[in-house]
């Protein structure tokens, strides 16, 4: 489905006004281009999908800062590229930390299991997270549970819910954003 630049600008204007259908239209229109860009860069489907979702999440959060003198696709690709660079830096930093602590590997192997205190903290955090998830609408709860607790792929979730793949992606994006807001309110 090809949209003219004028109609895309109209959709962006509606998105800036908070119209959820406009956000869905933007996601549908540009998903394949951003995902394709990332799959070429990362050569990893999970990373490409994760970065693409984070790209749209960030773009939708910052939609008011979009300057329409640039193409929207270019703006999305720039966000996507920066998120990928951040991911690479984070992985390099983790790798360097791992290498620098090479002398401590024996200690790490011996002490990988969480202590009783650590286990209690993990359980309390999980209980708090589950309580926060229960504050979401049921369809958002379901998509969060399928993705993060049942560890289903987006395609598997779409099949299970009998919904288009892009709807699942939008729902998950919104669910994560709403959950984030609930957690921040605490």
TrEMBL record:
Pfam families: Sigma70_r2 (PF04542), Sigma70_r4_2 (PF08281). GO terms for biological process: DNA-templated transcription initiation. InterPro entries: RNA_pol_sigma-70-like, RNA_pol_sigma-70_dom, RNA_pol_sigma70_r2, RNA_pol_sigma70_r4_t2, RNA_pol_sigma_r2, RNA_pol_sigma_r3/r4-like, WH-like_DNA-bd_sf. It comes from the Bacteria. Keywords: Sigma factor, Transcription, Transcription regulation. PANTHER family: RNA POLYMERASE ECF-TYPE SIGMA FACTO, RNA POLYMERASE SIGMA FACTOR SIGV. This is ECF RNA polymerase sigma factor SigW. It comes from Flagellimonas maritima.
